[in-house]
């Protein structure tokens, strides 16, 4: 087996530093491990993406080391369509006039933002 490259050593060092920085913060260690596991299957030849993730990890490390971070969490996008609860007083189908101020994901129409988040 060959020696680890400089980038590999930097990534492993970042992983250890993130784990150390997140020791006293709830959810930080699990989030760091999950993030690294998620990207572990990246091909070694995808250097641009690896370097991007490395820079992103460096910024997260700075945030964790600052005194402002108390815990670490993540925003999770729902996998399936949201379930509608049948409330009392709602009889029949609601008319879709297209100008409602309700949640755009509650109707059968497309949401206001595209699925790719742009």
Automatic annotation (TrEMBL):
The keyword Chaperone applies. Keywords: Chaperone, Mitochondrion. Its main location: mitochondrion. It is found in: Mitochondrion matrix. Pfam families: Complex1_LYR. Residues 72-118 are annotated as: Disordered. The keyword Magnesium does not apply. InterPro entries: Complex1_LYR_dom (IPR008011), Complex1_LYR_SDHAF1_LYRM8 (IPR045295), SDHAF1 (IPR052687). Residues 9-62 form the Complex 1 LYR protein domain. Belongs to the complex I LYR family. SDHAF1 subfamily. This is Succinate dehydrogenase assembly factor 1, mitochondrial. It comes from Vulpes vulpes (Red fox). The gene is SDHAF1.
């Amino acid at each position: 087996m060959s020696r680890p490259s400089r980038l590999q050593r930097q990534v492993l060092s970042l992983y250890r530093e993130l784990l150390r920085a997140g020791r006293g913060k709830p959810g930080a260690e699990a989030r760091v491990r999950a993030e690294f596991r998620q990207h572990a299957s990246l091909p070694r030849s995808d250097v641009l993406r690896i370097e991007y993730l490395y820079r992103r990890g460096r910024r997260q490390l700075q945030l964790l080391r600052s005194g402002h971070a108390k815990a670490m969490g993540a925003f999770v996008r729902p996998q399936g369509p949201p379930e509608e609860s049948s409330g009392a007083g709602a009889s029949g189908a609601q008319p879709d006039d297209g100008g409602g101020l309700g949640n755009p994901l509650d109707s059968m129409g497309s949401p206001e933002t595209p699925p790719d988040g742009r």
